[in-house]
Amino acid sequence: MKKPILKIFKARTKSVNLQAGMSYAELIVVLGIFSVMSAIAIYNYGAFQAKVDIKNLANDIALKVVQAQKDASFGKLPLYGSFGVNKPSYGVHFNRGLDTKSFVYFADLDASKVYTPGTLTCVPGTTYECLEKIGIKKGNYISDISIFYKDSSVISYPNGFYLTFTRPSSELTVAGTGPVLNNVDYAQITVLSPKGISAKIKVYASGRIQIN
Questions:
Q1: Which residues are bridge partners to 183 per DSSP?
Q2: CA-to-CA dists, residue 33 to 19, 30, 46, angstroms
Q3: What are phi and psi of 95, to 5 degrees?
Q4: How far is the CA of 91 from the CAs of 31, 184, 203, in angstroms?
Q5: Count of CB atoms within 10 A of residue 66's CB?
Q6: Residue-wise over 152-180: b if at least 16 C-beta within 10 A, else e?
Q7: Which of 88, 97, 137, 190 has the most Cβ atoms closer than 10 angstroms to its Cβ?
Q8: Could you tell me the strand order of the sheet in which 130-135 lies?
Q9: Pairwise CA distance, residues 103 & 122, whole Å
Q10: What CA–CA distance (Å, rounded) separates 68 from 113?
Q11: Which domains does the chain have, with CATH numbers?
Q12: 3-state helix, strand and coil shares in percent for the chain, rounded to the nearest 5
């Protein structure tokens, strides 16, 4: 009685062993599925990294505006230069028409509410009013700078505007290429990544800053 059972067991074991392997066609299918899933994962990671980079850039711009508020309210004096006011204003200058890959942090030494470079290049410590030129990396850039007015009108300023703060108030002063702009609700800087992902930095007249 034992011998037939043993034969049946060996036959079944042999059958299982024959089916345990993977055919060439099955291997190709599995590798194909793996390749598709890997491509999707890499694409999603690239989009995710672009979102992180553009948010980091928006945060850097917002932090530089906050620094201007603090330096102005604390009455900080720059390390160099002569100025016509005891406590200068501080601000951030954007000029999309001239340069979409950088912006300037400045001290308003002549109380004009605008950035007076003296020269076209910003060399901290030697160029009039320039404290720092912040470069934008990883292919990101400033795509738009606009003013939203309290009457609901919107005007784009491709040739630049100046966001300044003066002691003791933390409220925002906005100037275009001409005089100070009135009736401003907020200034908006839009940054864009090569993948088309954007972020908006809103600086309200009250001094409040928002990132969207």
A1: none
A2: 22, 5, 20
A3: -140, 90
A4: 56, 16, 12
A5: 15
A6: eeeeebeebbbbbbbbeebebbbbeeeee
A7: 88
A8: 130-135, 102-108, 89-94, 161-165, 172-175
A9: 10
A10: 13
A11: 45-211 (3.55.40.10)
A12: 30, 30, 40
Q: Which two tokens stand for residue 54?
A: 């553009």
> Both tokens of residue 60?
């850097």
Residue 200 · residue 211 · CB < 8 Å: yes
pLDDT single digits (tens) 131-158: 888 999 999 999 999 999 999 999 999 8
Place of tokens 């600086």: 203
- Rg of the chain on CA atoms, in Å: 30
Q: pLDDT of 185-205, one tens digit each?
A: 999 999 999 989 999 999 999
Determine the 3-state secondary structure of 194 from DSSP: coil
Strand residues in 114-183 grouped as ranges (E)? 130-135, 141-149, 154-156, 161-165, 172-175
Residue 82 has pLDDT above 60, yes or no: no
Which tens digit of pLDDT belongs to each residue from 105-116? Answer: 998 888 888 887
**Phi then psi dihedrals of residue 108, to 5 deg:** -85, 80
